[in-house]
Task: structure prediction
Amino acid sequence: FRFTKKNNMATDQNIVKSDGNYRDTARKDNIHSLESGLVNHFDKLNLKIIKFKDAYFTIQNNFRLRLSNQNFMNASIGVYIPEYFNYWQDEIKPSLNFLVGKKSSRCTLGYSFLYKKYTDRYAQSAPGSFLDKKLAMWTHNVELGWTLPFGQRTAFQLTLNMTDAHSNMLWQGRYKYNYTGFNMYSGMNFSF
Result:
């Protein structure tokens, strides 16, 4: 288990008041995180296709709470939302890792599910009107990775990711809430 707390001050952002003016007070965000995880090792895993030297299953849970004193004001339509950036989120991340071959290359298959709920921010329709429900987002991510070591401190890495994100926010004028994405990363990893 690990608990962290961060206090972020945005001295360049003053707090928005309900009349659209600004207070002399700067924005302050408190972020509380609680992380937990389990690992289960399998010394040898023999499947009909391939023998693995070592395999392990991990599962992590990351919970985050963000409390901000910043508000939101849209003067053109007269909408004021206090504590606009407050949210909580929970992410669960299981993964399966295998060590294969003479060089002990590592294959990873991982998945994560993240649910994020804003406590005061409202979702919006496609044209931009505010709905009578709070903004919620859920994201699925699948990862396939391969690491091939070259000595003790150098390794080649290849990672493939697919992300599928959904939300009850239909207005996407400034930020894309609903999307599917694919990424591929490769390169060398050096540790010192």
Q: What stands out?
A: The mean pLDDT is 90.
